[in-house]
Specification:
By secondary structure, this protein is mostly beta strands. It has no helices and 10 strands. The chain has strands at residues 3-7, 10-12, 18-25, 34-39, 46-51, 57-59, 67-72, 77-82, 91-97, 106-110. The N and C termini lie far apart (40 Å).
Length: 112
Amino acid sequence: QVQLVESGGGLVQPGGSLRLSCAASGMIFGAEPMEWYRQAPGKQREWVARISTSGITNYAESVKGRFAISRDNAKSTLYLQMNSLKPEDTAVYYCHSWTGNWGQGTQVTVSS
């Protein structure tokens, strides 16, 4: 079955950077668009970024210019480079496949 496993979360100070990874298995990774979502405490899950099979990217306005989504099809891995992090970026970050699979999430906390 499809497995998506996120990693790379942690505690970072405002203005800092983190790189999240999502390792995929049980699917033809290169054949599906992939996305990142996040869910802050007490809030609904929100879409963050999308990358197509050809590498075209789209971002939520709140992260545009600070976050970068990428993929390595040879490694079946999705990435999210997060720069200039703000306290409001604190959330559990999830990767999502176009066919509806979710990872378990990785916690990102931005705090001084």
